[in-house]
Design brief:
Elements: E1 3-8, H1 15-28, E2 32-35, H2 46-55, E3 59-60, H3 64-70, H4 80-86, E4 91-96, E5 99-104, H5 127-136, E6 144-146, E7 153-158, E8 161-166, E9 174-180, E10 184-189
Helix pairs in contact: 1-2, 2-4
């Protein structure tokens, strides 16, 4: 029987779509949930968003909006949510069902900006971008790379690496499920919404 891993990203201080995604994943019965960073930014409920991630035991990496949010805040003045974000790692790695996974917000090894864009503004795969990133990831020593940042929804095999971006819960209306060891990826739309495969393209 496959092990199912829930995938979310770029939740950006909007707890409602995050909660909808978490409910979907829990109903399906995922074994664990991975979040590709950017808890902060855009929305106005960082505390509620962080609490959902914590209470659902999401394995989370730090993103660029998180680092920006923490700048200039004295450690003693941080809220509990900010203190939790401050201790998040830049990258996480796992071995599940014999498959090696690496998760980082933008691109490996630990970058939080200038992420991996594979899609055009309509959500189609740009062959030149796919070729560029296939070459860039040649020799990457993991079976699966999970990223966020670009607000694009894709799962593409680039050479030996399965590259996955679950998109943003609040902007792409999406979350994902990775089934192992089959390495099958399914994207789910949030209730009463459609997946936006590429959001804020080119900005």
């Amino acid at each position: 029987m496959a092990t199912k891993i829930g995938l979310i990203g770029d939740v950006h201080s909007y707890p409602e779509p995050l909660g909808e995604a978490l409910s979907l994943l829990k109903k399906i019965g995922v074994e664990m949930i991975l979040c590709a960073g950017d808890i902060a930014g855009y929305g106005n409920d960082l505390d509620g968003t962080a609490e959902l991630l914590i209470s659902n035991e999401c394995k989370t990496v730090i993103g660029n909006h998180d680092n920006w949010h923490l700048q200039g805040i004295n450690q003693d003045d941080r809220t509990p949510a900010e203190s939790w974000i401050a201790q998040l790692p830049a990258a996480l790695e796992f071995t599940i069902e014999g498959k090696s996974l690496y998760m980082v917000h933008s691109r490996p090894p630990t970058h939080d900006r200038h992420g991996i864009k594979l899609l055009d503004e309509k959500g189609g795969v740009v062959s030149e971008q796919k070729e560029i990133w296939t070459q860039a990831l040649a020799g990457f020593e993991y079976d699966i790379l999970i990223v966020g940042h670009s607000h694009q929804v894709y799962a593409e095999q680039l050479g030996d690496v399965l590259l996955i971006n679950p998109g943003s819960t609040c902007f792409n209306n999406a979350c994902g499920i990775l089934s192992l060891p089959e390495m099958k990826v399914e994207f789910l739309s949030l209730p009463d919404k459609s997946i936006v495969k590429s959001w804020n393209w080119g900005a």
